[in-house]
Amino acid sequence: MNQVFPMVPASAKALWVMAVILVPLISLLGYSAYASRHTKFEVSESGLRIHGGLYGRTIPAESLVCSGAKAVDLKADPSLKPGLKTNGIGLPGYQAGWFHLKNGEKALVFLTDRSSVAYIPTREGYSLVLSVKNVPVFLNSIRDICR
Question: Is residue 100 domain-resident?
Fold first, then answer.
C-alpha cells in the first residue's frame, strides 16, 4: 500500500519574494522587446540622440568622428561584430548596450539587422554600431552636422 503525504504549503512570504524578483525581470524584458522595435536615432545640429531602450543618450556633434563614419555589413566585415557584452542586452535578433567589438574596440550597440549598419567612431573612447533604415541618408545627416 502506497501513502502520499503533501508538503506543507509555502507561506505568502515566499510568493512575495518571487514576485519581487519576477516583476522587475518581466518588466525589463518587456521594455527591451518594445525598444527592439521602437528605438529611433535623431540627428540634429546639437548631435545624435538615441531615443529608446535603456542605453539611449545624446552624443554631442563635436564628439562624433564623422570622417570615420561608414556603412557596414557585419556579415561581410566581422571585425566590427559585437563580441563580449560588458553591459547590455544580447537576445537573438537584438543587441543593445555596451560591447567590445571583435576588433577589441568598445562600442555602444543598437543592432537588429546586421546588413544595414552605421558605424560611427567618437572622441569619447567608443564607437557606435547602429542598425538604421537607409544608412546612406543617415550618414549624410551625420556628416552634415560635423561641418
Answer: yes
Its domain, for residue 94, covers 12-145
Taking residue 6's Cβ as centre, other Cβ atoms within 10 Å add up to 5
d(CA 15, CA 6): 18
pTM, rounded to two decimals: 0.86
Residue 31 lies in a domain: yes
Does some domain include residue 5? Answer: no
The vertex-135 CA angle with 134 and 141, nearest 5°, equals: 100
Q: What is the pLDDT of residues 18-54, one digit of tens each?
A: 888 999 888 888 888 888 889 999 999 999 999 988 8
- Dig out the grid coordinates for 104 from the structure: 577589441
CA distance 96 to 52: 10
Number of structural domains (the chain) is 1
What amino acid is encoded at 84 in this protein?
L
Distance of CA 110 to the CA centre of its chain: 4
